[in-house]
Design goal:
Elements: H1 3-19, H2 24-31, H3 35-42, H4 49-58, H5 81-96
Length: about 100
């Protein structure tokens, strides 16, 4: 995850936690992790995906990961690898103009 994504994720976790009136210790207890891990998440630090899932579940949410891959049409409408190459070539040509 990029640092921007981690930072944004941390802000979302902190906002949700504060909206419930919870301390970091409260969230950590509900998620079954240490308070220092909650602090690291909120500060934009890197943690394991399963830990993020625990935190989201404790906040009555879910963690959803959606890859954004270049030349893959973001997962929509790609028929096969040949089609993906054609789309990629078209994008490169259009971007160079």
């Amino acid at each position: 995850m990029s640092s921007d994504v981690r930072q944004s994720f941390g802000v979302s976790i902190r906002t949700s936690r504060l909206a419930r009136g919870w301390t970091q210790r409260d969230l950590a207890s509900r998620a079954g992790i240490r308070q220092s891990v909650v602090s690291a998440i909120e500060a934009g630090g890197g943690v394991r995906i399963d830990t993020l899932e625990l935190v989201c579940a404790a906040l009555d949410g879910e963690l959803r990961l959606e890859p954004r891959l270049p030349f893959a049409g973001e997962g929509r409408g790609q028929v096969d690898a040949g089609h993906a190459r054609c789309v990629g070539a078209a994008r490169r040509l259009l971007a160079s103009e």
